[in-house]
Amino acid sequence: APDCGDILYNTYQDFNRQHHDTMIREVPGVVAVLEELERRGIAIGIVTSKRLVSAERSLNRFDLAGHFDVLITQDDTTRHKPDPAPLLCGLERMKLPAAAVIYVGDAIHDIIAAHAVPMRVAAVTWGAEERATLASLQPDWLIDDMAQLLAIINLQS
Q1: Which long-range contacts (CB under 8 A, 24 or more apart) does 136-139 make?
Q2: Which residues contact 65 (CB under 8 A, 6 or more apart)?
Q3: pLDDT, tens digit, for every residue of 37-59?
Q4: 121 — phi, psi (to 5°)?
Q5: 119, 100 contact by CB (below 8 A)
Q6: CB 56 within 8 A of CB 65
Q7: Residue 42: what are its φ and ψ, rounded to 5°?
Q8: Whole-prediction pTM value?
C-alpha cells in the first residue's frame, strides 16, 4: 500500500497537471528584458525547484524556452535549494564564475542558496513571499519590476 508521502506527492502531481497553466502568469516586461540581455550577449539561465516537465511546461506556456542558455531543474541535482548545489550546477554548465552572475529569485530559498555559493542575488517582489521577508534576508537588490534588473546590470558593467 502507498504510504502517506506517496499519496501526498501523487495528489500534488495530479493537481499540478490539471491546474498548472491557470495558476502561473507571465511577469510584465520579462520578454523585453530577456531580449535586451540576449542582444547584449549576456548568458541567461534558469535554476528552478520545479521538475523538468513542469519547468518546460511553464516556459512553453509563455513561449519563453528559446531565451535561456541553461535550464537546471530538480532533476539535475540530488540536493536542492536552499542548498547551493543547483546554483553551482548552473554555474558549471554556463562555465561562469559566481562573481560574474546575478542570481534572480522570488523565494527565501533562492536568497539563502545564493548567499551560500556565495553570489550576488536580486530578489523579485512579485512572487509568493512578502517584500519584508525577502528584505530581511539581505539580498543585494530588491526588484519591484523587470526594468530594474536592466538598471542593475547597467550599473555592474
Answers
A1: 137/108, 137/111, 137/112, 138/111, 139/111, 139/114
A2: 56, 59
A3: 999 999 999 999 999 999 999 99
A4: -140, 135
A5: no
A6: yes
A7: -85, 125
A8: 0.86
